[in-house]
Design goal:
By secondary structure, the chain is of the alpha+beta class. Strands 9, 10, 11, 12, 13, 14, 15 and 16 form an 8-stranded antiparallel sheet that branches. The protein has a 7-stranded antiparallel sheet with strand order 2-1-5-6-7-4-3, with helices on one face. A hairpin with a 4-residue loop joins strand 5 and strand 6. Helix 1 crosses helix 6. The chain is globular and about 50 Å long.
Length: 313
């Protein structure tokens, strides 16, 4: 039987004191198939988040959008995605058959989310299929309630911009964000016989300004969660990661290639109310896709759980 968690995740679980519990419940809640509820959930979404790894081993976090129903599930072990990657998104080159992939289905206005990792099972005109390796749900914590609606007229897309360093507009977008997404991977991602060695794409939320920006270095508090440590476990064994920030007003996307580290304790952690630890990201490069996302968003209602969290001093 394949292991539910890899060594990096296990090490973080042991450090947090959750290992014994997760060794028991992990195999029950992390499945090799999707329950019908998850299959129906993906089918009602106007967008999904995607994590992949390029040929150089760099993870990327991406987003795909379409009319609800653009994701379907022919059977409990498979998702069919009828959408093409956005222009200039590294995702287009990363969808090779057999490649490791992570998906996050999230419905912000209901604060529901489900995750899976697996493999690209085939490409076709206008889309691709995903074979499920691991499937599991997540709690609603830290999700800002805003409704997303797909539009076939996203506005006039402008040329992609490659940044060697974060410029002023990029830093401003990050500094005011209340949400971002992160893609991480195990160094051996892609082995079909070890679903725990996969790619993960995850949501992170906080009060506006919860991401501290200092030049090309971002620092983020990590709040209490499900204690699976999928993201942090990957960072512990492979610091390369991809971050995705969205401008919910304009449809702009900012994709970052970074190296992450975990700060488990110290005065910085103690100074941020509610933080269990910190994540620090050193940005190596960025890709800005102006007006690329064909979604329009309603007004956000911050998660009530965030009332117990602080701010950067």
């Amino acid at each position: 039987m394949a292991a539910t968690f890899h060594d990096g995740e296990v090490a973080l679980q042991e450090r947090a004191g959750s290992r014994a519990k997760l060794a028991e419940i992990g195999p029950r809640v992390i499945r090799d198939h999707m329950p019908d509820q998850h299959r129906d959930f993906f089918a009602q979404l106007p967008f999904i988040l995607v994590g992949t790894v390029d040929v150089r081993g760099q993870p990327w976090a991406s987003v795909l959008a379409g009319e609800p129903g653009f994701v379907t599930s022919p059977d409990p072990r498979r998702l069919a995605v009828a959408a093409r990657p956005l222009a200039h998104d590294p995702l287009a080159a990363n969808l090779a058959e057999g490649a490791a992939i992570g998906l996050l289905g999230i419905e912000p206005h209901t604060r529901r989310r489900n995750r899976l990792n697996g493999w690209v099972a085939g490409r076709r005109e206008g889309g691709f299929d995903v074979e499920v390796g691991q499937s599991f749900g997540n709690c609603p914590k830290y999700i800002q309630a805003r409704r997303a609606n797909f539009t076939s007229a996203p506005g006039e897309a402008r040329p992609a911009q490659v940044l060697d360093t974060l410029d002023g507009p990029a830093r401003q977008l990050i500094a005011r964000a209340d949400t971002f997404f992160i893609a991480t991977s195990h160094p051996q991602a892609g082995r079909g016989d070890a679903p725990a060695f996969g790619v993960d794409v995850s949501h992170r939320g906080g009060k506006p300004g919860f991401v501290r920006v200092e030049g090309d270095v971002l620092t983020v508090p990590d709040f209490v969660g499900n204690a699976f440590f999928n993201t942090l476990g990957n960072l512990a064994v492979n610091p390369r990661c991809g971050l995705l920030f969205m401008d919910f007003d304009t449809g702009d996307l900012l994709q970052l290639a970074a190296r992450g580290e975990i700060i488990h304790e110290g005065p910085e952690v103690d100074a941020f109310q509610g933080a269990q630890r910190l994540m620090r990201f050193h940005v190596a490069s960025a890709l800005r896709l102006p007006a690329a996302l064909p979604l329009r968003w309603g007004r956000a209602e911050l998660s009530p759980v965030l009332e117990a969290t602080g701010a950067w001093r």
